[in-house]
Design brief:
This protein is of the alpha/beta class. Helix content is about 50%, strand content about 10%. The chain has 12 helices and 8 strands. An 8-stranded parallel sheet has the order 1-8-7-6-5-4-3-2. Helix 9 runs antiparallel to helix 10. It is globular and about 50 Å long.
Length: about 300
């Protein structure tokens, strides 16, 4: 099942579960993969920033990707970003051989000019092969690489194997509108746009033309509901569901502790056995955990689906 430009829905960014001693927790991978399928996710994305990919050895990354892929019938996108193209090409081939639907490539922070960005993706495609569908990861707040709509159009036009944009700019609503405008005037072929940033702007991103979400919010059921309701024209219902989760979404967006919050909530939900991260990592104080517990209790009173299992 290869990734295509008409992909829609929700592709949750899966965490890499670790045991308290730092070993990969295979049982939790299986459990959370099953959960994503049960709630109506369209696909999965693994080895992204939330997946702590840079903290994994090459063999570990390949094994984690393969386990997610084997466990589900959903299309799986594998993050293959790496400092060098040799490692990127090796993981991309391994992932595709294991049954991945496509790969995701983030630009290195050293890129500054438009031509450098476009040239980098041309070299990346040359390294992994033109037959592998790939996703552009556009996340300037973390990666410090700014891609204008024009640059994204150049990358898509130059590389037929580019089928999706993971849009994670902030502010970024106008970028979505610009890209959809390019499609309407015929200067950009159709491409899937899934959005990140923890889902913080998903309510309006869908209205601007995004096809769905690709992010790691700890209640992906909400993402599924908002995307589905927005597509059905149920605007008020979509915003009501979104608004109930907004305090927790906001709390997750704190720089340095966002992953700690997400893993803690996933652990509270029984989806992973431990909220452990590999170092270097930020952690939650007892006070922070109590604040998250407070937000979870408030959320459960507003959204029946958000009750902890």
């Amino acid at each position: 099942m290869r990734l295509s430009p008409d992909a829609k829905g929700v592709y949750p960014i899966a965490p890499t579960p670790f045991l308290s001693d730092g070993r990969i927790d295979d049982a939790s991978i299986d459990r959370i993969t099953d959960f994503y399928g049960a709630i109506g996710a369209t696909g999965l994305t693994v080895l992204g920033i939330m997946g702590e990919a840079p903290k994994l050895e090459g063999a570990e990354a390949a094994a984690v990707a393969a386990r997610f892929i084997r466990r589900t019938s959903l299309p799986v996108i594998v993050g293959v970003s790496a400092p060098g193209f040799a490692a990127m090409a090796s993981l991309a081939k391994t992932a595709m051989d294991a049954g991945a639907a496509g790969v995701m490539i983030a630009p290195p922070p050293s890129l500054r000019t438009d031509d450098q960005i476009v040239g980098y993706y041309a070299q990346a495609v040359d390294a992994i092969g033109t037959d592998i569908p790939f996703v552009i990861q556009d996340y300037p707040l973390t990666l410090s690489v700014v891609m204008t709509p024009g640059v994204i159009r150049r990358i898509v036009t130059d590389n037929p194997s580019c089928v999706m944009l993971k849009h994670e700019d902030w502010p970024g609503l106008e970028k979505i509108s610009a890209l959809r405008g390019f499609q309407r005037d015929g200067s950009l072929r159709p491409i899937s746009i899934l959005c990140g940033n923890g889902g913080l702007f998903l309510d309006f991103e869908c209205e601007r033309g995004a096809d769905g979400a690709m992010t790691g919010y700890a209640f992906p059921e909400m993402l599924v509901d908002v995307v589905r309701q927005s597509a059905a024209g149920e605007r008020e219902q979509a915003h009501d569901v979104f608004d109930a989760h907004l305090p927790l979404l906001r709390y997750e967006q704190q720089p340095g502790v966002g992953l700690a919050v997400r893993k803690y909530v996933l652990m509270r939900r029984g989806l992973i056995a431990s909220d452990a991260q590999r170092k270097p990592a930020g952690g939650l104080s007892a006070t922070a955990r109590a604040e998250v517990d407070f937000l979870l209790a408030r959320l459960a009173r507003q959204d029946e689906r958000a009750r902890l299992v």
